[in-house]
Design goal:
Blueprint lengths: L1 H13 L12 H9 L2 H7 L3 H20 L15 E2 L5 E2 L16 H19 L1
Antiparallel strand pairs: 1-2
Helix pairs in contact: 1-2, 1-5, 2-4, 3-5
Amino acid sequence: MTTEKLAEGFRTALDATEPHPYTHRVFRDFLELALGNRQIQARFGKSRRAYRDFIRYTAKPLAEAIQNLSPEGDTHPNPEYPWSDTQGNVVSPLDYPFGELDTRANPKMLEMLAFVEACLEIAQAEV
């Protein structure tokens, strides 16, 4: 949810020519806007090339995985709330590893978290 709201806020601030689409799938599209944003690049602390490579090869695939977590109707579990597994056990989002999004399993996710933090710092400074 954080990445979704972050993307919606930045999209409005950077490109308010169209209304927001009614979808949870906005974070990956936001990365296209972020790619050319020097303020985010500077706050994130990357050279232009390293920033571009991060967006293209790390952030976009992870953003797709994050977006795939969003609920899609009544049959898809919402990862923001506990759900039942196939055996009927209640699973807490805090206890579920979420595969490639787990920072212990994927060090690139730590870099993604640093990127999100840089974006949030910029947004907070604007308020």
